[in-house]
């Protein structure tokens, strides 16, 4: 079978039969061997029977959520290609040939782009059209260098085997972003075709909740991009903190009538420490995600982990500790010169704050190196060859046992 059209469904009695009829009519018109699968997510309005009467195969998906319903339908699909689309009659299931042509040409994922194809009046709320979709799609392109201009288009086609290999896990509306992000990270062939969006045919409100689901999309994009979540903010904080700290290490700085002194130096120290911790979190996240398969292996991170050995980390941490200890000795000498009495904060803090910062970064470096070393411990993973070898050994043992029993019975 070449094509399966998958439609997630939750109480779509008003439109599901129309969508199924259009999809089946399209396949008949173009001579495509295919089917329509309605992934029902617990409808209580009779959508299931209406879909069956229209010619669809209905599969029940118990786990609630847009992503769970779609994955249930994709797993149940029999076609080589899958085109997914909402069952609310907002997408044109009679015009799927652009997707089919790209898939036949070798594409792994073909995304519809509503902004290029046309959005009918009233089909998309202004908040989604001018803020939500453009902003989230821009963030997705920026974070992951994705070629997709409409991250959240619900009409898309793909090779079933390619998408199943991605190991998609999210169960809600963020499933749309996860598919695009993981396909991009895995280097799949992603293409776009213009598609139209019409007002849906339902009389009830949509399942989508703008702010809640928008936040879930944004959260997913951030969590799958440690570079933008941790690394870049951390480097910016460190750079600003270091510039400020160096400028204030010899005395106050005045910009016009505005003066900066040791109070600002303390803030600069905090920025350096927080930024350094964020950079370390970026490394932790990339290593862990790569080892667990959430993100693909990054050669740059792997080289960095190979360079940051436990011994080197301990050495760098030790050097920072020595620098901090030297600063504390200098502060004690300064205190001694004042007869171990009351100190002038503007003078003493210029020695104490950098020293304490060096000590904190020393501890961070040592602990981080130990943690990365733990993350880098490779677990032995059973391969297909190992499984086959084990099965062969078990079969040989079973045959030997049967032969032994048979031999004993003949002797008796």
UniProtKB/TrEMBL annotation:
<comment type="similarity">
    <text>Belongs to the glycosyltransferase 2 family.</text>
</comment>
<keyword id="KW-1133">Transmembrane helix</keyword>
<protein>
    <submittedName>
        <fullName>Glycosyl transferase family 2</fullName>
    </submittedName>
</protein>
<dbReference type="InterPro" id="IPR001173">
    <property type="entry name" value="Glyco_trans_2-like"/>
</dbReference>
<feature type="transmembrane region" description="Helical">
    <location>
        <begin position="356"/>
        <end position="377"/>
    </location>
</feature>
<feature type="transmembrane region" description="Helical">
    <location>
        <begin position="268"/>
        <end position="289"/>
    </location>
</feature>
<dbReference type="InterPro" id="IPR058718">
    <property type="entry name" value="Agl6_TM_C"/>
</dbReference>
<keyword id="KW-0812">Transmembrane</keyword>
<dbReference type="InterPro" id="IPR029044">
    <property type="entry name" value="Nucleotide-diphossugar_trans"/>
</dbReference>
<feature type="transmembrane region" description="Helical">
    <location>
        <begin position="310"/>
        <end position="336"/>
    </location>
</feature>
<dbReference type="Pfam" id="PF26629">
    <property type="entry name" value="GT2_TM_C"/>
</dbReference>
<feature type="domain" description="Low-salt glycan biosynthesis hexosyltransferase Agl6 C-terminal transmembrane region">
    <location>
        <begin position="283"/>
        <end position="376"/>
    </location>
</feature>
<dbReference type="InterPro" id="IPR050256">
    <property type="entry name" value="Glycosyltransferase_2"/>
</dbReference>
<feature type="transmembrane region" description="Helical">
    <location>
        <begin position="228"/>
        <end position="248"/>
    </location>
</feature>
<keyword id="KW-0472">Membrane</keyword>
<dbReference type="Pfam" id="PF00535">
    <property type="entry name" value="Glycos_transf_2"/>
</dbReference>
<feature type="domain" description="Glycosyltransferase 2-like">
    <location>
        <begin position="4"/>
        <end position="163"/>
    </location>
</feature>
<keyword id="KW-0808">Transferase</keyword>
<dbReference type="GO" id="GO:0016740">
    <property type="term" value="F:transferase activity"/>
</dbReference>
